[in-house]
Each structure stands twice: as structure tokens, then as C-alpha cells.
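Exam prep: given the inputs below (a chain plus shikimate-3-phosphate), describe the expected output before reading on.
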Amino acid sequence: MTKTITRRDAPLVGAYRPEGDKSLSHRALLFAALAEGESVIRRFLVGGVTRAMLRCLRQLGVRWELDEEAHLLRVRGVGLRGFAPPAEPLDCGNSATTLRLLAGAVAAAGVPCVLTGSEGLRKRPMDRIVEPLRLMGADVRAEDGRAPLTFRPAPLHALAYALPVASAQVKSCLLLAALAADGPCAISEPGPSRDHTERMLAAMGASIRPLDPPAHGAVALPLAAPLRPLDVELPGDISSAAFLLVAATILPGSDFTLSRIGVNPTRTGILDALRAMGASIDALDAGVLAGEPVADLRVRAAALAGTEVRGELVVRMIDEFPAFMVAAACARGETVVRDAAELRAKESDRIAGMAAALRALGVDVEEYPDGFRIRGTGRIPGGAELDARGDHRVAMSLALAALVAERPVTIRGFDILSESFPEFPRVLAL
Ligand code: S3P
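Solution:
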């Protein structure tokens, strides 16, 4: 679908509670399938990526019931080794989280199967899970480090492994496989990737511990008793909220509240980065949902200045760079991001794609192998036709740029946004 968006003169005012967090929706669903008993998951994200996980689990013999209107999901768990061998390859669509987390679960279950996905997903690196899974003893074959991945049952062993790049998907894959290993698996990583898997598995009864000596990552012990089912309400997705935080910051006169947003410190880098630029974001009414900290985020329009982002902050805002790049374009002064080469291995090469798009809109952007420099002037000239490149977050970020651009912006492939945030066009009245 092609969409043309013209400048918005009205501020963003009011309040909105986003759907459940994407990472937590994936985990709650998959871990519920691996538990014994019935789980209830409220505010489940109904998007393209979670539909992929739902389809795959059904093929593995898991029964679930989804009330789409109510975002209410019930899952009948089959236990860690209860998956049935699927007749067909499991199609993970565009969802790397589905593929990488399922890989750990099917290795643990000892179920023969093939994991594959869309053309885009089949281009993304899978050697990062294949290599350590093989070190654990898994029988998994890849095609040149990419999906399809073919699994055959094999006993899994203890492992001590240091991830070369901080990644919650890889860490989660290995922690899941570790539940069926014959000894402890210690997974360390160079930065603080999201720890939702550790929190949720521990709450379900798994033995997940900090590394000793302390480091980023975790140790998982073989499962001693079945995982307990979940009864949870999921926090709102801070990665979806980020688009509205940026929108309200750059649309003059805005005052908008995002309620019940997950503010796990491994996810709040975008708040730190925007605040460092001068954004006005208040976290109010702190609470806990599904074992995760939540808060209401009140954001008011503000003038932004350039900033610098590198190191661990990059990991803590890894999905937010497309939206952040629009904020940087609207700021005055230079914004520099380094240590972010991982952005090239997401749903698209987000450095190249966003840099090309912003340049087409008249923004001064320079690309580095591991980041970019944006010289913000406080305005986006606009007046171009752009492509979302099959990337939901690029589609939404280009829409943000269009809201403040001086001339209309046309976005091809705009509907890809429904992978993670189907309500985005409605909330912004696009
Ligand atoms: C995710 C981890 C991140 C993130 C993705 C979701 C997760 O990927 O980009 O959108 O749910 O574990 P990496 O682990 O590849 O950094």
C-alpha cells in the first residue's frame, strides 16, 4: 500500500495505551506453550509478527485461542518436550524473534522440523544461533548461515558461551535450549540486551541466575520441574510508544500521555537519548505488570538539540534508531551515533535505508559503518517518494518525518507497519 502524508498542523494531545509489548508477547506465548497447564495472556499484541509465532505453535501441536478484539490469548501448554513433529516447514514470516526463540525451543523439545520465513528473514544472519546451538550438541543445519534451519533431535550439553554481539534473541534461544541440557549453560554478552526471558522463565519456575562473576547475561540450569503456566497482563510496548514520543516532541503544542508502558531499564535507552536532546518526558505512576516495571509517559513538545549515542545506550534503544533519526533531523545541531553496526542486520539495513530516505527529504546525513551523523537544522524539506523497504519501523519513522515535512511525502509499502503496531495510523489519524 502506498500512502501520501502531508504536514500536520495540529498538536498531538490526549492519551493512548498501546498494545502489549512485542518481545513480551512472543515470550509469553512461547513459554506458555512450553509450560504445563493453561495460561492466560492479556493485552497480547495482535500483529504480523505474533501471528507468525501463533501459526508455528499450532503446527507444533499447541492449542490456543485468541480473542482478537479483547487481545486475550489462552494457551494450552504441552511441556518442554511436548511439541509434535510438524508435517510442513514452520514459516516464521518476517519475525526473527519467532525464528530465533523457536530454534531454542525445538532444540530443547528434540522435535525434527524446518524453520524458515519470508525472503527478508531468509537473508538475516542465523549463524549467531546455529554456532552456539551446535556447541551444545544440537543437530541443526543452515544454508550458508541463514534460514531455512533444519533440526533433528539430539541430546544437549552444558555450555559456557560469550556472545560476540549483545542480542536478546540469541541469548533467549540459548537459555531455552539450556532448559533441556545435561548441565548449566552460562551465556554472557558484551552489553545489556533486554532481560525479559530471564524474568519470565524465572517467574515460571526455571532456575535462571546471574553470572558469577557479575557480567551481562545469565546462567540457566536444566529444568527440574515443569514450567508453571502464566496469568499475566502485558505492559505496553515502549518500542511502539517511541514513535508517539517522537511525534509529540516534534509537533508543536503537543501534550500526550502513553499509559502503562514497559520501562524495563534494558529498554529505556530512547528516553535517555531523547531527554539528553531536550525532550520533555515524565514517567508517572510507576507499577509492575507481568514482572516488568511500567509507568505512564507524559510527553510535551520541546525544541531538540543534537546529541551523541554510543556503547551500552545503543543496546538499550536498539529498535528505536529509525524514529530517533527523525528526532535528530528535527533537532538543531549535530547528532552522532557509533557502535551501532547491528542496525544493518535488522528487518532492513536501517542505517543505509534511513540515511537514504532522510537525504531524499533534504536532511544532511553521513553514514558510518557502525552509525551515522545527522546535521539537524530544525526542519525537514520533504517532497519525495520513499520506500519502507519491508521494514515496519522504517515505515512508521518515515511517517513521522512526513508529519513535520514542508512538502508531502509518499511512502511505498506503508502497510508493513502492521507487523508490530497496527494501530499506528489510527492513533495519528493518518
Ligand atoms: C528482540 C531483540 C532485539 C530486537 C527485536 C526483538 C527480542 O533483537 O531488535 O526487535 O524480542 O528479543 P536482537 O536480539 O537481534 O538484538
